[in-house]
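Running this now, will post back.
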Amino acid sequence: MPVYICKTCGTSFPQTPTPPAQCPICEDERQFVPRRRQQWTTPQDLREDHVNGWARLEPDLFQIQTHPNFAIGQRALLVRTPQGNILWDCVALIDDATIELVRGLGGLKAIAISHPHYYTTCQDWARAFNCQVHIHADDREWLMRPDPHLHFWEGESSVLADGVTLVRLGGHYPGGAVLHWAAGANGQGALLTGDILQVAMDTRRVSFMWSYPNMMPLSERTVRQIADTAASWRFERIYGAFPGRNVMADGNAAVERSAKRYIELLNER
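Update: finished.
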């Protein structure tokens, strides 16, 4: 029996004879079901017509993106550290070439995921590299495919390696997390954010949303809380969910400035 993967969000489901009746992640208001309804693929079919492309973003930081675009289209980011490599977020495609390239870089110490839209096939990545997947316990209900490699962390932060820390910001999802990499940006710090802080088209800005596809905002209180938590970490750069969405300078100031403007617009009369 195959594992089925939702073509809209990339989430993988347990092995069954036929595709699931629905995808709960897409049925949720933070995602969507296409007008042509839910469609499904399998890991084998995905490997036949897609490949993963690579890019080096800075020393010890690599981008993995699936071509042609699949599901939400996010990238995964691989951070190299002296204590082992960390994969941030996941893409649904994992093939022999990807496994060989990751092993050539030293394998994986851990996988960490920002929020449920990027769980994809994290279970298969974890099995391939015999490592844990770190997911905040507040988002446990959205994990569609149980696996012994899954680790549900709790609280406001969790250290994965020296200078590599998961930080819960919430907002888009209750357990929404970012990854602080102290060695990034030549030691000035980098924040890997997925959609929790969404780097905007104007890459001097970030935004905050409850639902991106359905354009539903967060409250002033939540945005202020996210910005205040982020401000307690030092970072020059922000690497968002999608290729090219990088704040390359003044990361802390970009978050504070963006939060201030967002709140101003919420309160305009």
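The chain has a mean pLDDT of 97. More later if anyone needs it.
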